[in-house]
Sequence to fold (102 residues):
Amino acid sequence: MKYYVVVEINITDPSWIPEYLQKVTKMVESVGGKYLARTANIEIIEGEKTQPNNIVIIEFPSKEVAHAFYESDEYQPFKGKRINGTKEGSFMLVAGEDIAKS
Fold:
């Protein structure tokens, strides 16, 4: 089953972004991941949530691959830079399932 990483971030220091995009994109693709969205074009149409200034959605072939990527030694320096250059972020893993079709 496919899994999706949904990242909501508010960038406070953009200096990490160029290297992150260049290197992490290749890491994601090398394990079969695919970026579905990387955007600041966000509109909340329902709810009380504070709007992040960027959202990223990545498709991974499985939960195991997504976890292995997130925990990999190769990704850790970039993870740290992302966390240090943002605030009020979240990094969620979502199952690609439809509970109505169980």
Observations:
- The helical segments are 17-30, 63-71, 76-84.
- The CA atoms of residues 5 and 93 lie 5 Å apart.
- The chain has a mean pLDDT of 95.
